[in-house]
Structures are given as C-alpha cells and as structure tokens.
Amino acid sequence: MLQSITIKNIALISDITISLAGGLNVITGETGAGKSLVIDSISLLLGDKADKTLISYDKDYAYVEAVFTTKSAAIQTLMSELGLEKEETIVISRKLFKEGKNECKVNGKNFSLSMLKRLTAPLMDLHGQFEHQSILNEQNQLLIVDGIAGKEHAVTKEKFASQFEEYKALKSELNSFTADDNERNRLIDLYDYQIEEIEEANFQVGEEESLKEYRQKVLHIEKIADSLNNASELANFGFSGTGGLVETITRLMSTISQVKQYSKEIEELYNRLDSAKIDIADIVDSIDEQKDNLEFNEQEAKQNEERLDLLNSFKKKYGASIEEINAYLEKIKAENTRLKNSTEYISELKSKIEKIKTELYSLGGELSKTRKQAAGVLEQKITKELSELAMKNTTFKIEFDNVDLDQCDSTGLDRVEYLFSANKGQPAKPLSKIISGGEMSRFMLAVKNITADIENIDTMIFDEIDTGVSGVVAEELAKKLLKIAKTRQVICVSHLSQVASYATAHYYINKVVENDKTQTKVKLLSEEERLKEIARLIGGTISQHSLEHARFMIGSAKSFLESL
User: Alpha carbon of 458 to those of 39, 68, 225, 379: distances in Å?
Assistant: First the structure.
C-alpha cells in the first residue's frame, strides 16, 4: 500500500506530502489546480520518462518520494533479486535535475529505470486518460486474455516465442543460401584467398612486440655500441685505469676482512660485498658479451621491416591485433566450410525448419485452446462488472482469428478482437468503432479491476476514470470503486460529486498565492470541509440546496459502505 508521497519543486508544487489511507482516496479540486501534477509525479516513480519541464522554473531540481508497505512474498522475492534487503517498507525516490541528470533510489540504493519498473509494476497500477486508447489495440487485447489464461499458459507462450525466434533465424539462414548462388560462389573465392593469405603469413601471438623491439635495436645500434663500449671500459678498468669494478670491490673486501672478526655488523657488510662481487662480475661478463656480439645484419633488418609492413596491412584488413586476425581466420574457415557444404547444409536446415514448424503449430494449438477458455472467463467477468456499472444489457464477445505461421508473430497463431454492444438486440461490433466515452470509462474500470485481481496489485490509481460519466451511472461507478477499495487501496482523481461522496479519505487540491508566488497545496478535508467541496462539485457554487444535497449523498454513501 502507498503510505505517503512527497513532491518537491514540480511546477507549482513547492513541497507537499500526502499521507494516504487504505480504502477509497479521492482527490478533487478546481480545473488547473494541479491534480494532474500528482499523477505526473506518481508516473515518475513508475519509471516513466522524465520531462525536465516539470521542474519549477526557479529551481534546479525536482524530487518525488513514495513510501510503500507490503507483506507480499512475491515482492519480497523480487526485492532480493534486485539486490535489496527483504523489508516490509519500501522507500522509492526520484530526483530530476535541470541539466538532464536523473537520480533514482530504492531504500537508499541506486536503481536504473528498468529495475524501478520491475519493482513498481506489482506495487501499483496507474490508469490515466490516455490509456483508454490502449485497450483498442488488438495486441493489448490479446495480452489481457493471456493474463487470464494463467501461469501454464505463460510458460507455453514463452516456449512458442523462443521457438519462433529460432524458426525465423533458420528461415533467414536458408534464404541466405538459396537467394543468390553467384554471391555464395563469390564468398567462397574470397574466403579461400583470405584463408591462404593469413595461414601463409602465420603470425604468432607476441610476434609484433618482438619485431618492434628488433627495429628499435637496429635504429639505435650505434648508440648501443658506444654505450656498451663505455660501460665495458668502466667496468673493467675504471676511471683513468684505476681498476675495474670487481678489482675495486676485491680491494674493499680485503681492507674490511682485517677487522670483520671483531664486529658482527662489519662481518655482515663483508658478506654483502662478497655477494655483490659475484653479481657485478656476472654483469660485467654480460656487458662484454653484448658488446662482442653486437652487429648489424642488413638482410635481417630488411626482413624485419617487411614483416612489420605485412602485419600492418593485415591489421587494416582482418583485425586490430594478431589475436583478432587469428580469430577472423577461424571464423571464415568455419563459414567457408559451411558454404562449400551448402547442399548438405540446406537439406539439414530444411529438416530443422520442418521439425520446428511442427512444434510451433503444436504449441500454437495449445495457446489457442487455453486462450479460448480464458476468453470465455473474461467475457463473463467483464459482462458482470459492466452490469454492476449500470450496463446490464451489454454484450461482450472476444472473436478469434487463426493465422498461418508466416503471418504470425512471437505471441502465437491467434489474433483477437473485442466485440461490444451496449444495447440489447443489437449485434456486437468491434469495440473501437462503437463504444462511447462514458462506456469506455466503465469498460476500462472493469478491465482494470479484473487484471489487478490477477496480478494481485495492492494500489490502483485512476486519473479521471469517470470521464464522460454522469448521473446514475456516476453513482454506480463510485460504488464499484468503493467495492474495489474493500480489498485494495484505490486512489482516484475525480471531478464528480458522486465519486467524492463515496470517498473514505477526501483530498482537496487548490492554488494559493503566498509571498507573490502561486503554489499548489493539498489538504485532507475534514467532514465539514468535505461537505462544502461536494456541494461545490454539485453546483459549481456552494448554496444551501447544494449543501443539503451533498449531505444526503454522503449519508447514502455511508449506508452503502456499511452494507458491504
């Protein structure tokens, strides 16, 4: 359940916190007071795209925070999957900055929008006015049927989708073989040439470093020779012939040896000199060996440059490194073998395609069967819901059309269309062509109530679900909202007095001017304040007559609530 929502710096909202209750929470207010801003703020917490124009003009950021409580085991499991501790309280916040940055946190942990959508989907469902059109989309109509069909159906649907993707990949691969023989022969010739060229070059991992090292040696051979000669001279003869390094260390050791028996520290120094003498002697020998073996081989240097040039040309054609070149070689060898064995491979592909087609038609048949069963249940449920919303003569049917595998998509072999008639004796026709605005509002309420039951969503939010509704129908809609609110939290933005009179908590949104600045405020109304607001909704102005009418409506609503 949504316990509270805090909104800061969103358009005219400076800083408000709305504490919400269970039951039917109704939000009313003058047109333009900011009711839609509350819905926009909740949408942000559902992971909707951020619009920085929502940020108050004189502020650098906007902030929305919601506190939920839940005991749902499924949500606890989902929290664990998303890296959260399993807690009954969930605090979700989102911060938008004018420069475009977007910050989202859940219980203090940074979340991506995709993670946020996963978490909030089972927490709350928001129905805005724009969603009226979504139910007219045949794909969405099929999704609702699938939701009714249950978990086993969902597993079968996933299997179909997976197999269908494989089927499309195999068909595409088969087409690549059969579409153009000339292109296949061209690729075989190209791959033959490339394979021969790369294998003949036979570059080994680490070879490039060795080639570059040899090049550096050749480029600086004179400098190396001078350095080695000087080093050898110093190491063997010292400055001005005073003795080389080894001879100097030997004399030093001889001097210290005369007193080493009197001090452990001096003896340790003597031993260190002895060890250094061995290392120095080895280094001097290595310097002399390098000096004596240093020579310039013009042929080797030329071959080294040619090898480097060849490697660079290969890197332009086949990959940025020897590893990538060799990986490309393995790839085209496999592809070349496949192309050369195309006759056998095509036969194998066709066999796989036929096998998977059989499996898809079988899975598609299973989906159709369970969908038709689910459609019967959905027809009954929606007809019952609409009957409770003063649409007793409604006819609602779901029509199926089976399509071929090459005309379907990953959802299966079925196409569905919702058929509707609001009047007894009139044939049902496509929903999109005949349903009115008021009928659509009630139809959406019926659908949302059914799907929320399936998805076990605790909080349902309706933004002006009562559009196009008035009179007796509006009261029936209000009763339906209150019935729904017996088992879950309902939050409803409304402009109807009938809906407001059935609220278990009534909030009023209005604009006020403080310090020469217009701000949106939200207030939980007292009984007296609520009476006046309902009177305003009835007649536009508050009069004795509208107050009496409002009092009667509230009394009727209380009696209905007590009867539930």
Answer: 17, 10, 84, 24
Q: Which amino acid appears at position 472 of this protein? A: V
Angle at 338 between CA 337 and CA 342, to 5 degrees: 115
Report the CATH fold assignment for 1-123+457-564: Rossmann fold (3.40.50)
Where are the domains positioned within the chain? 1-123+457-564, 207-333
The structure tokens listed for 399 are 């029509």
SS3 14: strand
Are the CB atoms for 88 and 132 separated by under 8 Å? no
Amino acid (one-letter) located at 154: A
pLDDT digits (tens, 9 = 90+) for 38-85: 988 998 998 888 888 899 988 999 999 999 999 888 899 999 999 999
Instruction: Compute the average pLDDT of residues 170-183.
Output: 78
Q: What φ, ψ does residue 390 adopt, rounded to 5°? A: 65, 35
Residue 179 has pLDDT above 80, yes or no: no
Strand order of the β-sheet with 489-493 is 124-127, 459-463, 489-493, 24-29, 505-514, 517-524
Q: Which residues, 6 or more positions from 341, have their beta carbon under 8 angstroms from its beta carbon? A: none
Phi, psi of 171, rounded to the nearest 5 degrees = -65, -40
Unique residue bearing structure tokens 């407001």? 500
508 forms beta bridges with: 28, 523
The 3-class secondary structure across 296-321, one letter per residue, is CCHHHHHHHHHHHHHHHHHHHHHCCC
Q: 61's torsion region: left (phi>0), alpha (psi -120 to 50) or beta?
A: beta
pLDDT band per the 50, 70, 90 thresholds, residue 555? very high
d(CA 356, CA 352): 6
Distance in angstroms (rounded) separating the CA atoms of residues 96 and 164: 41
Provide the strand spans (E) within 279-322. Answer: none
Backbone angles phi, psi at 37, to 5 degrees: -65, -35
Closest Cα to residue 464, out of 433, 484, 437?
437
Strands laid side by side in the 429-430 sheet: 395-402, 414-421, 429-430
Mention every residue, 6+ apart, whose C-beta is less than 8 A from residue 223. Answer: none
Q: Rounded CA gap, 114 and 160, in Å?
A: 25
DSSP conformational letter for 507 = E
- Could you tell me which of 520, 443, 462, 473 has the C-alpha nearest to residue 25? 462
The neighbour count for residue 112, using CB atoms within 10 Å, is 12
Question: Using the 8-state DSSP alphabet, how is residue 50 labeled?
Answer: P
Residue labelled with tokens 């073989």: 177
CB 13 within 8 A of CB 37: yes
Crossing angle of helices 298-318/322-340, nearest 10°? 60
What are the residues facing 62 on neighbouring strands? 96
Residues 466 and 129: their CA atoms lie apart, in Å, by 10
Residue 119 confidence class, pLDDT cut points 50, 70, 90: very high
Query: Which residues lie below 8 Å from residue 48, measured CB to CB, with a gap of 6+?
Result: none
Rounded CA gap, 211 and 207, in Å?
6
Can you give the three-state secondary structure of 135-147, one letter per residue? HHCHHHHHHHHHH
Q: List Cα–Cα distances, 554 to 434, 475, 486, 528, in angstroms.
A: 35, 12, 18, 11
Q: Which two tokens stand for residue 343?
A: 């006759």
